Structure formats: structure tokens, C-alpha cells
Amino acid sequence: MRNDYKSMEGFCRIEGFKNILIIVTGSIAAVKVSELVEQLEKNKIIVKIVSTKSGAKFLEPHILEKSFVDSDSFKFWKKIGDPIIHIQLAKWADLVLVAPLDACTLGKISSGICDNLATDIIRAFPVSKPLLFCPAMNTTMYDHPITLIQISLLKSWGYEEVPPISKMLACGDYGMGAMSHVEEIVKVVTHRLN
């Protein structure tokens, strides 16, 4: 199935398919997004991707070219009544998946900061629809007391955490903070959509 990733035609609903928006933030775990997209698309899911500036540094070129970035914010808007991309994406998505969720964006979301396309979408996304987030950061960042407070706040809004795992991290440390396995994320997403 052809996915018109970044065109207005790509915002149409297709019967029998669910729409997922993956928001990618600045964690090395973003290298798993290609595999995540591939696995989700096997489940009659249409995927669109939004990346923060720091998240884009970790994406493979074929994923980055399909991704919405900050410079796309007013791509379709010329006058009053024209589509505004963060609103269109929030309406289009049946589920938002923030994978990976870095410490910076976690702080922004929990504080209500909307200073990029990703955080604008999250703020515009109805809390009546599922939003899942997959924390991914260094162990000392994950273990910081503010992280628990911020994650608890997101959960209190109805957002669902796909918890991180312990493993050898990119920095060479071993500990909690690695993004959950792709298979686990796909399992949680498909369960929430059914």
C-alpha cells in the first residue's frame, strides 16, 4: 500500500487501517524507528513520522525523508482556513507513539511547552485518544527524581508508558533507560488499537 507520507492526500482515512503517528525525539534509540515502522505496517497500520531536530540526527535517510520536521509546520497553510499541520496530524492519528522519548521532550511535555512541531502535536492531540510513550535515556537521567515526577504526571493525563529496559547503553554504561524492544512496543500498540 502506498503511503503519501507528506501530502494532503496522505491524510485520508483508509477503511480497515489504523493511523499511527510516531514522534521521534533525540535519543540514540531512534535508530530503531525503521524497524518499528516496518513491524507496525505489517499490522494494517498506516504510519506517519514526526521528528524533533535532535531526533533527526539518528534517523536513517529513507525514514528522515518521510518525516515531518519543524520546517513543515506551515507547509500547507497560506491563508485562514488552510490546513495547519500539527492540527491535521492530531486529527488524523488514532494513536500517537512517542518513541523514543528523550529527557528533554519529557520535560517539555510535562511542563506544557510547545516549541516545536512534535510538542505542538502532543498538545493538540485529544486526551480521549491513546498516547503511548517509550522513555529512552541514560540510566542516571532516568533515575533522576524529576523523571519519575514527569512520567507520573503524563500517566495522570491518561498517557501510557511502555517502560524502558536494562541493558548496555550506547555510552557504555549498563542499566535502566534503554527503549523497550520493538516487539514489545508493537504488541502494546496493536493491543491498544483493538
Q: Portion of residues in helices?
A: 25-40%
**What average pLDDT do the residues reach?**
93
Write the CATH homologous superfamily: Flavin prenyltransferase-like
SSE order, as H and E? EHEHHEHEHHEHHEEEH
- Annotation field: number of helices: 9
Distance between the termini: 21 Å
* CATH fold topology: Rossmann fold
- Round the Cα radius of gyration to an integer and report it: 16 Å
Lateral arrangement of strands in the main beta sheet: 3-2-1-4-5-6
Based on secondary structure, the structural category is alpha/beta
CATH architecture: 3-Layer(aba) Sandwich
Major beta sheet summary: 6 strands, parallel
Percent strand equals 15-25%
Silhouette: globular
Topology:
Elements: E1 18-24, H1 33-41, E2 45-51, H2 53-56, H3 61-64, E3 67-68, H4 85-92, E4 95-101, H5 103-111, H6 117-124, E5 131-135, H7 139-143, H8 145-156, E6 160-161, E7 165-168, E8 174-178, H9 182-193
Parallel strand pairs: 1-2, 1-4, 2-3, 4-5, 5-6
Antiparallel strand pairs: 7-8
Helix pairs in contact: 1-9, 4-6, 5-8
